[in-house]
Amino acid sequence: MSFNRIAIYGHRGWASSAIVAALIDSGAPIKILYRPGSDVSNIPDTVETIEVDLADQERVVDVLRDVDIVISLVGHEGVTLQHQLATAIPKTNVQLFVPSDLAARYDEQGLRVPVNRAKSEVEAAARDAGIPVTVVLVGNFAEFAAMGIDIRNNRMIFTGDSANQPVNLCTRPYVASAYASIFATTPITTLQNRTLALSELTPTGAQIAASLSQKHSSRTKTTTETLASINQKIETGLEAGMPIVLAYYCRKIWGTGEQGGMAWGGGDVWDVKGYEKADVEGLVGGGLLGAYRDMPPTVGKFFGKEFEGCR
C-alpha cells in the first residue's frame, strides 16, 4: 500500500482537529503547517510541524517540496488566506489541493453569504491557476446547533416544508473517517478535479421530531416558519452583515427541498467502507450526538426568541 504525502493547514478547529487526528491515524506521512504563534500541542510528537507565514511565498514553496496533497481545513476567518496557497502550489510538485469547504454548492443567494462567496473564490482561483482540486461537501454537520432543533428542551422549528424534506447530515467522526479514507492512499489521479459528497444520514424534519418525542416520552413542541419569512430574514441579514444569516439560509434550503442536491453539488457520493453510519434515533435518542462549537451569543439570542413560539 502506497501512502500519499500530505500537508495540512488548519489543525485546531472543531472539525479540523478530528480530521487531522484521523489522517494521522491512517499512517500517511503528515506535516502540519501552522501560522506563527499557533498552538500545536495537540499534535503528536511523531508528526512534523512547520511554522510558516503564508505571505512568505518562498518559504511556502520550500515546505511543500516533498508533498503530494495540500489539505486546507481553515475556519471561516481564514478562508481568504488560502489564496496564498493557490499562488504557491503551482511552483511546487503538489498534485492536489483540497480547499476548506465542508458545506455545499449554493445558489446565487447562498453565494452572497460572505464565507460561502470566499470559499467559491478560492476554488476558482486554484482552478484558474491550473491546480488539480478536490472539494469535499458534507451538507450540514449533524452537530450544527442552528438548524432549529433544540434536543435538550424537546423543541423544533420547521421551515417551509422541512417536516417532509430530507436534510443531508454528517457527524464529525464520519467526516474525519472520510477524509482519511479519501486522501491517505487513494491514487491522486483518481481524485483530481472531483467534487466528493459525503452522506451519513438524510432524515426528514418529521423523523427528527419523532425521535425527539421518543427520547423525551412526550410530544415535541414545534412551530413552522414560512419560506417568505425566512427569506426576509436572510435578505435583512445580508444587508446588515449579521452572523445569523448562514443559519437562516441553511434552514431555508432544507425547507425548499434544495439542500440535498446542493450537498451533492453534482458530484459523486463517497462512502467510507466498513463504517457503521449513525441514524437519527441513535443521534437524538442514543446520546451519540456530540456538542458543536459554541455559537456566538447573538446567534443564541435570536434562536432563543424563535423557540419561544413552539407549541
TrEMBL record:
Top-level taxon of origin: Eukaryota
Name by which UniProt lists this protein: NmrA-like family protein
GO MF annotations, alphabetized: oxidoreductase activity
Pfam families, per database record: NmrA (PF05368)
Keywords per UniProt: NADP, Oxidoreductase
Protein transport found in the keyword field: no
NmrA-like domain residues: 5-222
InterPro entries membership: NAD(P)-bd_dom_sf (IPR036291), NmrA-like (IPR008030), NmrA/Isoflavone_reductase-like (IPR051609)
Record bears the keyword NADP: yes
SUPFAM superfamilies: NAD(P)-binding Rossmann-fold domains
